[in-house]
Automatic annotation (TrEMBL):
PROSITE patterns: PEPTIDASE_M14
Domain Peptidase M14 residue range list: 28-303
Signal peptide segment: none
CDD domains for the chain: M14_REP34-like
Active site, renumbered: E275 (proton donor/acceptor)
Family from the record: Belongs to the peptidase M14 family.
Cofactor(s) listed in the protein's UniProt record: Zn(2+)
Organism field: Rheinheimera baltica
Name of a matching Pfam family: AstE_AspA_cat
Keyword presence, Zinc: yes
Name of the protein in its database record: M14 family metallocarboxypeptidase
Keyword terms, alphabetized: Hydrolase, Metal-binding, Zinc
Superkingdom of origin organism: Bacteria
Amino acid sequence: MDKIYHIGTVGQPWGEAEKAQWLNEQRIKRSFFDEVLPAIEALKTEFDIEQYGELAYQAVCGKTYPLFAVKSRNWHSDKPTILVTGGVHGYETSGVHGALRFLQTEAKAYSDKVNVLVLPCISPWGYETINRWNPLAIDPNRSFGPNGTATEAQQVRQYLHGLQLNFAMHIDLHETTDSDNSEFRPAKAAQDGTINKNWNIPDGYYTVDDAEHPCPALQKAIIDSVAKVTHIAEPDENGKLIGEPMQQPGVINYAKATLGLCGSVTDAPLVSTTEVYPDSPSASPEQCIQAQVAAVVGALDYLLQTK
């Protein structure tokens, strides 16, 4: 099933010319300013909104994107602090709208027990162009380490470091989509000068635990919560999901700090990356948003039961 991407030469990593060609092909397809920003601003009556940075992409698309954090009001150092991130990959729609829906529907009910911090749309250019990468063809979700080069990731790192908080939990909201096979996996292989060999896209919800600091009980709590909303992904014929061995039903592991993933951006002992499948014939986009909310709620309930 090898798919040869239309940019670059097979076996040769991209240079600046190939990256420029890729960027030149990108188009704005939806609006962060119409679909996301008003929802963030509407939360001002019940939450504190902080601008933690901006993406100065005027040369790319004529826009500067503000980056916002949403914080619960009755903040107290005696309560555990939880982080929810969405839109690290801007094209993963329910990551953004799931984070917003959690704030709109559930966050306030938990804010007497925990401090809630949500970064709902970390990659707004990616949201608008429906892209995994930023304009420099860098994947922000491989860039959260100290040597990361994606501005989207590094501004999050700097903001969180400046807060000097001890996080109890971090839930990072993602999707796996059919476009991973039609666009992003072939594009990544072309950029790297390799051939992609893994084409598995799980039909259903799954989570990614941290291989370096696993918390399997948290993953189970999330899976159990999400199963009330949508179906959980089954393993492929090799007992794997996206090429990774199953650790328990609906759970695989990644080495998050080694890979520079968003899930490693804090020292929280409880971390999970969620993955929904919006292209499933058995799930709607609305169900995917609800599944993201159910994941955060399941994680919060687990935290509160075990602290």
